[in-house]
Amino acid sequence: MLFASIALDTAGNVYLAYPETPRPWPDYTGAAVRYRWARPGLARWSRPVTVAAFGGAGHLTVHVVAGSPGRLGFAYLTGVERPGRAPLWFATAAQTTDGLSPFPRVAAVTLAAFPSYVGTATELAGACGSGPLAGLQQGVLCPRASDNFGLTTDAFCRLVVVWPAIINEADRAHAGTWASSQTGGAGLCS
Question: What is the number of structural domains in the chain?
Answer without folding.
Answer: 1
